[in-house]
Amino acid sequence: MTDAAVNAAEYAVEVAAVDKTFDTRSGTVTALEGIHLTVAPGEFVSLIGPSGCGKSTLMRLVADLDEPTSGAIRVFGKTAKQARLDQEYGIAFQQAGLLPWRTVAGNIALPLELHGVASAARRDRVAELLDMVGLSDFADRFPDQLSGGMQQRVAIARSLAERPRLLLMDEPFGALDEMTREKMQAELVRISGETGAAVVFVTHSIPEAVFLSDRVVVMSPRPGRVAQVVDMRLGADVSGGARASRDDALREERSFFEMVTAVREALHGAPVAGARGVETR
Ligand SMILES: Nc1ncnc2c1ncn2[C@@H]1O[C@H](COP(=O)(O)OP(=O)(O)O)[C@@H](O)[C@H]1O
Ligand SMILES: [Mg+2]
Q1: Which CA distances in Å does 45 have to 113, 151, 200, 247, 255?
Q2: Which positions fall inside the ABC transporter domain (predicted)?
Q3: Ligand 1 centre and the CA of 98: distance in Å?
Q4: pTM of the entire structure?
Q5: What is the pLDDT of residues 153-163, one digit of tens each?
Q6: Most informative mutation of 22, 170, 171, 225 for ligand 1 (most atoms within 8 A of CB)
């Protein structure tokens, strides 16, 4: 979808001319400079770039956990603050962030409880979410009885509880082993497909970004800028248009490697040589 095809009010996320500086004891740190970015409803956009380039800062601005120094952020046409108050998005960050004294079901139910969903409806929804992430048999377990991958699935189920039109995910699979990670990627592709949610996804793995995304936003080292936006053209669908199916076979396809190369080249072309902290395997 081209930018012109969508009215501003219809963007899931619109970041316009955003700068973010932090005043620290050792001076001013410019974390983000001149960021423009739009995400269409249902679109999957990854942010990739070296450590410290401002990916988490940008996510925090969109989630209204901090404010831009200048520029504007809109989420479904609303201010970031209004979107937060209206629960327009689910969040899953690097640490699963589960409450250890609550069961799996209790953790997933939390956002529903906080927003006054009646208990019968809540039970139904939790059962549905447990099924979606393949944890129906673990409803009564506690987080410390689960593997890291399972905890992360609980966090994802929780982020989906209120059927958000948008998911904000900051390295949600960063702590997982490679096999679990690939499973979770496939799972996320399925879930975002089923729910039609837009996703903004931070990663420093190039293959992960390629596998998941419609577009990959490559950021430059500090001060973080958008160095390049790479459209993913994958599978049979090399001409763009409808999304290629994201399955394990895709990881072996030539178009997949071509996209990995395109993203790697975009990273290396960023100002200041090298892309430390970025996985290329
Ligand atoms: N609260 C803060 N105070 C001061 N500096 C910060 C703060 N948050 C982030 N930064 C700095 O902003 C830059 C971007 O950080 P971050 O967004 O966490 O990067 P990334 O997620 O891409 O690794 C880094 O130099 C970091 O040290
Ligand atoms: Mg980060």
Answers
A1: 30, 24, 5, 18, 18
A2: 13-246
A3: 24
A4: 0.86
A5: 899 889 888 88
A6: 22
